From TrEMBL, chains A, B:
UniProt cofactor(s): Mg(2+)
Binding site residues for Mg(2+): E737, D761
Domain Pyruvate phosphate dikinase AMP/ATP-binding: 17-54, 59-279, 288-338
Name the record gives this protein: Pyruvate, phosphate dikinase
InterPro entries per record: ATP_grasp_subdomain_1, PEP-util_enz_mobile_dom, PEP_util_AS, PEP_util_C, Phosphohistidine_dom_sf, PPDK_AMP/ATP-bd, Pyruvate_phosphate_dikinase, Pyrv/PenolPyrv_kinase-like_dom
GO molecular function: ATP binding; kinase activity; metal ion binding; pyruvate, phosphate dikinase activity
Residues annotated for substrate binding in this entry: R564, R619, E737, G758, T759, N760, D761
Residue ranges constituting the PEP-utilising enzyme C-terminal domain according to the UniProt record: 524-860
Enzyme class name: transferase
Entry annotated with the keyword Membrane: no
Entry similarity comment: Belongs to the PEP-utilizing enzyme family.
Keyword Electron transport: no
Organism: Acrocarpospora corrugata
């Protein structure tokens, strides 16, 4: 039988798998000689075994409990001088929905008197006893916590908790026991060993509580890890004003500023801080109350930071002037703090720059790049909802999509305010600067679709009442009518009345070329410089215009990974494209193509100049042609109602001819190039001539939607002929965006000099769903059900899409060792996906210009990560 | 250096890879001691080497030529007694577009006189010489053959060829040389060795002729096989009336009847038979002309059949009473002949029943199952077009799709007649019994779409003139007006005036339960019985009604592999489905579901009874809900023009809400089941209750469109609960029809008891094209370009879709060894695909009832094939 129970003296921080995060860190602190109450950890392995057969390692626990009793000189349940313990869960990853803590185990009607006697504080003893029954009832016996809260409130009758006396609490114990009896038909167990065993079982069982299961599914945490249980001798912060409890950070986790940061509450236990029953005081004021403990705490925090080489987050208790450490862990922090602290620790010699880069995530960098509301603006805070999609948006409130579209068309900036959104609101969401809803969580339609669009969104702002018919919403006493300006902060969830000034991100200004303005930007600068030095992946941008290309280059792009030529067919060129589509003879078609060619050429010259000396990948036209024509339904109605012109009749014929059931799976990409004579040839000629004119052009011609090598061969042959005629050189490659392309990559590589993974389409086809349709119709439900933890359009689905990519990389390279490999789907700018691209050995990622810095950082982190570093 | 040239005495029939089919069989006959003119074969390996470096093995050829000269006692180009040779290509697979034959090599202005002297026939000598120049000019020098034909016609001036004399042919030689000079600016080469070398090079080069390349691409013949060249001493069938040439089969290749079958032409060379310059005579009459040669020929044919153990197809020449064998091969035959001959050979002890089964293909069986036009009907044959899609169809000629739809709605059977079809004709093609076009080949829109639909089609009937405006077509003198009845035979391409009586296939009558009616049906019976005994794959049917199920069972189905429950939602139940979709409250929705449940239950009872004791796989509803509502465009127009009712308004709102850009990739299948509460539960309950009522029901519940195991788990959990409530057992499994399902099959198998490959959708998603859209828009072009040789919807794409299937089979079985594996896409009835399913180890295939016998046969063939048998 394995060893199922570890004394704190036996563990260390590297045993998180076995002891959980809490247990491992308690052991670490114990071994550092810090004042940790004695205790032991029952391992995750014991949990797994229990979940299989329902047996807990009772003997081993008894042995360790006996040791604990010996160390403390007290016995559990001793009516004279009882030992009390806490039972706390602690998995490898902290997990909402699991049972957390039961304090004061060991109390019963007899031992409560011993505790009173020993502590000389009868009130404290009965308070502790009622806390045990309350927590035990709620978490172990699964009784609705409200019942206990109500009984307490009734007893207090409006008084402060400090105003209650021993008799009050004794009465409360009686009430609580009655609640247990009524709710569960059993007595509160007065055997301390039974209390402990039930608590341990409850912790283990809570591993499979529905919320915990869902959370694991969403976060892709393996279901079979199990949780550990920590049994710790109780120390008391509620023994009087010389006692207390606190939480602290070794630096400011919000700003990253140096210096400790925390809260302290006198004469209280840990859960009182969370419950907010009284106001806490800043940690610094502990110096006035108990200078010795304060200095000791500072020493310990400095030691912990040095030892963990990172920001630490601690919990402590002072019992009658004696400091006890109850927990430590590496602290969570804001994005700004992450960068500042990482660089501070480098300067303090605690970590090197590699490590600093690894500790700053691309998501954090992205947060720093959003514009934000100016500090110090005095706008009324209307409410706070969920921060569903980050950014800062200002606009007139509107209450219907139609109105949003109408005003946006006039150039008015609007915020779409709805109780909740549905697929009909898509056009309104596109038209609006931001979206505010009063209903629905982070997986609601509004949230899912807004994130997909990169649109600022606050959802589930439950305090507001939206009255779409009356064109207004109310927030408390404030009424906001249509047309009134509001400001929503998708990063914090705040909603303000009026226009809050928006300030550009100083980090973006730095990327645009400004010198580092403050400590934060300097930190970003140092991190980015080191990441760039370390990364293996190149970073390119997706850009269709010279302006975007120039911006991307300033942001550090090393070329263009995707230029969508169809974007050049819009605007005032639409007429030419229409001519092309409506052409009835080869001559008419050719004349439309001839007219487009010089325009395309000029576009390409602009791109080549902006990216002079760097590669520019140009994708030949991809979408189906009817996308350039009016909508079938609109046009049918127009013609049927007699509102159409002669031209509309002709257009309708063409639209009907080109209409497809599933245009995404229709005549587009390379298929279009093979079916419409001269189309691809025109584009290739325009590229070739532009390249001849731009001295340092490095053109790469990309064929979209290839599923079979024969398609590519056909197009390639024609393209090579044109390149030879014009006398320029260009790489010819293909998108890998159809599953079959990945599955036959070995064949396709024979005819392709590069692959670029089009992971948007590849995701759609691998899963068999169209993003336009499904984000609105069932993604929210799927996120709720935990079918995926994050939309596969946001972060690459490793098991499905990723597997196809691996196949294509391996077999493509086997067929052509110098095959260039990149990605140009939106995943190219997603941190987790960039790491995956590094892992599978791509040469570059390409993303929107704004995401280029994020990709650079993540590429650096991926390259600098050592095995075992947890960089998630 | 490898041996590049083989004398006929050195080869044998098993060396087809190296010597090509023709060379290997010539060698085989030589070694059998049959009278084959001496000669040698230059190998395919020599061809490959030549194609790489342009060098032919001149020395080795010279050595073999010298041996040939010695054997014949004549020298090439000898002015006194010249040896003549033929140069003929011969690849492993015969291949249109490659150079075929040059006869009479060795003639020039000098040796023609020697030939005249030796043969004592000056006319013959000059005729042979002009033939050389003609064939050489056409095939080696690539001069338009028409030029030579025209010169010959001019010379004949209406006379028979036998009326031309030596002087005529001498003049023709002069003309032909002039043609060479004019067309190519060079002299016809008079050095016989140069003639031979140029001919050999021309054969090798023709391996890469565009038509040959295209053919290989379409037929998936490897591009690097190369062709062999046979150099054979000439023998002459044109030396007088005691000479001649013929082709023969050892049995009738049309009916399969015993006894030789062939044609003979006196005083002629082989190409004269093909050119049809005079009428041939039946081979039997050779007995009267040359009884010795005839008897010798019969002996040889019997020997060949015994040796090859199959129908043989031969070419021979008689030179002044001496029989020479020029070629043999296993002969092509009709479907009926294939079955009859195979069984005859068994009865004759030449082959065993395993071999007989292997020699009868599923395609051949399918041909025998089509209804056909009665023999002996005396309808006017209007024309013959291409046999684009088999079957026999009779109906009134109509000239527009609108009219076809209109008449079909009135129950009139129509044939749609068009110059060519386009996507607008889809509805008309669906409405018609058959399609006839005057333009376009087997890859035209009409042909591709009709084959996809299994609709009878004759295309490219170029002799008819379609005048759609005047509502008529003409065929020669006959005018066919709209409404007149025509009959089209998609198997032969024939088009008749009037209604030709259609007779059911006796083979189908046998499968329906009739006893074998004739030798053919008896043969089919024996083949099928043995195939059933040998096969490992089970065969199930796709059926949605009790009637279909019963029929499928008669045809040999061993269960239902796919019942599409959505088909049960049509007809008069549409109203209930509409109620379900329009439901605004959970109560309304539940009441619609409650109304559907007993109907579904009754359907399932019917199926379970029809398949009593056999497994019945029921797929829960798959298509998106808007498929049950009116079309968006139609409804929009109706409402906009004021023609709509109040209900139409409500419907339009629902249709708009449910509208999807790409419904195939939208809210359907398991997604629908997870999003619409109660829908799947209703279906599962109906299945469970039906199964409880049918004692021998074996229900299998199949979840469509699963892409992630979590989806399946969610549905499975609910289904298991319902099954337990009702108290019946059923397997729960999933379709594998989304690429991701195959890629994560190991995970999905944890929650699935069976997989059924839905290869229709899997093909669509793996290639990224929607069948509805692409068959019409670019499949014809793709077939023309050789991007695929056969539509991947007809025959499984092994490299792409097939690879996903292999992954799913391997990883699914690894995760769950007793996983049941089947296929229910239309490929389940395609012969080549059935073989693939056998190879990858599926347990069953499921196909439409009519294809069940085909699948049974192919499953048998696959199991009985021994390594190396060529069963394609």
């Amino acid at each position: 039988m394995p060893k199922y129970v570890f004394d704190f003296t036996e563990g260390n921080k590297d045993l998180r798998d076995l002891l959980g995060g809490k247990g491992a860190n308690l052991a670490e602190m114990t071994n550092l000689g810090l004042p940790v109450p004695p205790g032991f950890t029952i391992t995750t392995e014991a949990c797994r075994s229990y979940l299989a057969d329902g047996v807990i390692p009772a003997e081993e626990i008894a042995t360790h409990l006996a040791k604990l009793e010996a160390a403390m000189g007290k016995r559990l349940g001793d009516p004279e001088d009882p030992l009390l313990v806490s039972v706390r869960s602690g998995a490898k990853f902290s997990m909402p929905g699991m049972m957390e803590t039961v304090l004061n185990i060991g109390l019963n009607d007899a031992s409560v008197r011993g505790l009173a006697g020993q502590s000389g504080n009868e009130r404290f003893a009965w308070d502790s006893y009622r806390r045990l029954i309350q927590m035990f009832g709620k978490t172990v016996l699964d009784i609705d916590g409200e019942k206990f809260d109500e009984a307490l409130e009734e007893l207090k009758a409006g008084r402060e908790d400090l105003a209650l006396d021993a008799a009050d609490f004794r009465r409360l114990v009686g009430t609580y026991k009655e609640i247990v009896r009524t709710e569960k038909g059993r007595e509160f167990p007065d055997d301390p060993r039974e209390q402990m065993e039930l608590a341990v079982r409850a912790v283990f069982d809570s591993w499979n509580a529905p919320r915990a299961v869902l959370y694991r599914r969403q976060e892709r945490i393996p279901a079979d890890l199990g949780t550990a249980v920590n049994v710790v001798a109780m120390v008391f912060g509620n023994l009087g004003m010389d006692s207390g409890t606190g939480v602290a950070f070794t630096r400011d986790p919000a700003s990253g500023q140096r210096g400790i940061y925390g809260d302290y509450l006198q004469n209280a236990q840990g859960e009182d801080v969370v419950a907010g029953i009284r106001n806490t005081i800043p940690l610094q004021r502990l110096e006035e109350i108990d200078a010795t403990s304060y200095r000791q705490l500072l020493d310990i925090m400095a030691r912990l930071e040095g030892h963990y080489r990172d920001l630490c987050d601690i919990e402590f208790t002072i019992e009658r002037g004696k400091l006890w450490m109850l927990q430590t862990r590496v602290g969570k922090r804001t994005a700004a703090a992450a960068f500042r602290i990482a660089v501070q620790l480098v300067d303090e010699g605690l970590i090197d720059l590699d490590e600093a880069v690894i500790r700053c995530t691309g998501d954090q960098l992205a947060q720093l790049m959003f514009p934000r509301f100016a500090d110090g603006a005095d706008n009324t805070l209307l409410t706070k909802g969920m921060n569903a999609s980050p950014g800062a948006a200002v606009g007139q409130a509107v209450f219907s999509s139609a109105r949003a579209v109408e005003l946006a068309a006039q150039g008015v900036e609007v915020i779409l305010v709805r109780r909740e959104t549905n697929p009909d609101d898509l056009s309104g969401m596109i038209a609006a600067k931001g979206v505010l809803t009063s209903r629905g969580g982070k997986t609601s339609h509004a949230a899912v679709v807004a994130r997909g669009m990169g649109k600022t969104c606050v959802c589930g702002a439950e305090d507001i009442v939206v009255d779409a018919k009356a064109l207004r919403f109310t927030a408390g006493d404030t009424v906001v009518e249509e047309g009134e300006v509001i400001s929503i902060d998708g990063t914090s969830g705040a909603v303000y009345l009026g226009a809050v000034p928006v300030v550009a991100s100083p980090v973006v200004e730095y990327f645009e070329g400004a010198p580092p303005a403050d400590e934060l930007v300097s930190a970003v600068h140092r991190i980015m410089t080191h990441a760039d030095g370390g990364r293996r992946l190149a970073v390119r941008a997706n850009a269709d215009t010279a302006e975007d290309a120039a911006r991307a280059r300033r942001f550090g792009a090393q070329g263009i990974g995707l230029c969508r030529t169809e974007h050049m067919f819009l605007g005032d060129r639409r007429q030419l494209v229409e001519d092309l589509i409506l052409a009835e003879t080869p001559a008419e078609r050719q004349s439309a193509l001839d007219a487009l060619e010089p325009l395309q050429k000029a576009d390409f010259i602009g791109l080549f100049e902006a990216m002079s000396g760097l590669p520019v990948t140009i994708r030949l036209i991809d979408p189906p042609l009817h996308e350039f024509l009016p909508d079938l339904v609109d046009l049918s109605v127009k013609v049927a109602t007699g509102a159409g012109t002669d031209k509309d009749d002709r257009l309708l014929t063409a639209v009907k001819r080109l209409h497809e059931q599933n245009p995404m799976l229709g005549l587009r990409g390379v298929r279009l190039g093979l079916v419409i004579p001269g189309l691809f040839a025109m584009q290739v000629r325009a590229i070739a001539q532009a390249a001849r004119q731009s001295v340092k052009a490095r053109a790469e011609i990309m064929i979209p939607l290839v599923g079979a090598v024969q398609e590519l061969e056909s197009v390639r042959e024609e393209a090579l002929k044109i390149l030879a005629e014009v006398g320029v050189h260009a790489l010819i490659g293909t998108m890998i965006e159809v599953p079959r392309a990945a599955l036959t990559a070995g064949q396709i590589a024979e005819a392709a000099q590069f692959f670029s993974f089009g992971t948007n389409d590849l995701t759609q086809m691998t899963w068999g769903f169209s993003r336009d349709d499904v984000e609105a119709s069932f993604f929210g439900k799927y996120l709720d059900l935990g079918i995926f933890g994050v939309s596969p359009f946001e972060s690459l689905d490793r098991d499905g899409v990723g597997r196809l990519m691996r196949i294509a990389v391996e077999e493509g390279r086997a067929a052509r060792p110098d095959l260039k490999l990149g990605i140009c789907g939106e995943h190219g700018g997603d941190p987790e996906s960039v790491r995956f691209c590094h892992e599978i050995g791509l040469d570059y990622v390409s993303c929107s210009p704004f995401r280029v810095p994020v990709a650079r950082l993540e590429a650096g982190r991926a390259a600098l990560s050592r095995a075992g570093s947890d960089t998630r």
